[in-house]
């Protein structure tokens, strides 16, 4: 990024700056407002106006903390660090809505591989309900360890390098005999046909979890929608409920089938 930053000057014309911003989003999937303002040597209010303009032209999708590119790369995956800094308010509101669905004595599956699942685990850890939680995510497991009201089950597998995800066996075999109440699912990409992922091993685990649950609740901020990742995970009709933020445009939402999935749009 150094050469890019060196090429930016305070005297850059607005049109030129916005073109540079467009070029930046071609190779960087998400940007935080403060970081972009510092990179372009302009005020936060100016970069917000630039992002609003690009969003109005359909080049990026705005979040409360910055913006994400309109994704068209089926193999792209945000880093965990960037995901933690992107759509922060949206993710937190989605999690708070998801927590309302949890009742005492339920059995839950919590997905792996997404920051929003980690936030959900942090919230579940604060509940007083007696729960059974099954997860193949090491962060989720750690957050729920030493909670006397929670029976925690980690089926196991091989840890994916650089992540908290345990993939493969023995989890896949274990999940074949599980029947739980709710699977809280994440996704790399969602459109009106299916939920999809960038990794085949992740797809296999998520499919087993969908099959093991009475209902599947998908937690996803609006940047995940109207995009496709490389591997189809599940038909969209297999999703009972989608919880997302107001950034999902009405014209996109109405393209989804009814009654499944049902949408719950959080307030920010």
TrEMBL record:
Pfam families from the UniProt entry: DeoRC (PF00455), HTH_DeoR (PF08220)
The species this protein was found in: Flavimaricola marinus
PANTHER family: AGA OPERON TRANSCRIPTIONAL REPRESSOR-RELATED, HTH-TYPE TRANSCRIPTIONAL REGULATOR SRLR-RELATED
SUPFAM superfamilies linked: NagB/RpiA/CoA transferase-like, Winged helix' DNA-binding domain
Membrane found in the keyword field: no
UniProt protein name: Glucitol operon repressor
Domain of life the protein comes from: Bacteria
Residues in coiled coil: none
Gene Ontology terms for molecular function: DNA-binding transcription factor activity
Gene transcribed to yield this protein: srlR
Sequence ranges assigned to domain HTH deoR-type in this UniProt record: 14-69
UniProt keyword terms in alphabetical order: Transcription, Transcription regulation
């Amino acid at each position: 990024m150094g050469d890019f930053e060196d090429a930016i000057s305070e005297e850059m014309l607005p049109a030129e700056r916005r073109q540079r911003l467009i070029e930046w989003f071609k190779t960087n999937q998400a940007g935080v407002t403060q970081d972009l303002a510092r990179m372009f040597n302009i005020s936060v209010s100016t970069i917000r106006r630039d992002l609003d303009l690009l969003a109005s032209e359909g080049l990026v999708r705005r979040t409360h903390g910055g913006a994400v590119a309109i994704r068209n790369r089926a193999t792209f995956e945000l880093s965990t660090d960037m995901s933690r800094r992107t759509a922060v308010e949206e993710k937190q509101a989605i999690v708070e809505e998801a927590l309302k669905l949890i009742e005492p004595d339920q059995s839950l599956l919590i997905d792996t591989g997404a920051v929003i699942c980690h936030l959900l685990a942090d919230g579940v850890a604060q509940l007083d309900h007696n729960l059974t939680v099954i997860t193949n995510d090491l962060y989720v497991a750690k957050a729920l360890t030493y909670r006397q009201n929670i029976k925690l089950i980690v089926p196991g597998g091989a840890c994916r390098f650089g992540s908290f995800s345990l993939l493969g066996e023995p989890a896949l075999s274990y999940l074949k005999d599980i029947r739980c109440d709710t699977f809280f699912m994440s996704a790399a990409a969602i459109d009106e046909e299916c939920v999809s992922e960038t990794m085949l091993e992740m797809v296999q685990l998520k499919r087993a979890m969908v099959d093991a649950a009475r209902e599947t609740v998908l937690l996803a901020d609006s940047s995940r929608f109207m995009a496709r990742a490389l591997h189809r995970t599940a038909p969209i009709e297999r999703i009972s409920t989608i919880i997302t933020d107001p950034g999902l445009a009405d014209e996109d939402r109405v393209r989804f089938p009814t009654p499944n999935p049902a949408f719950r749009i959080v307030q920010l």
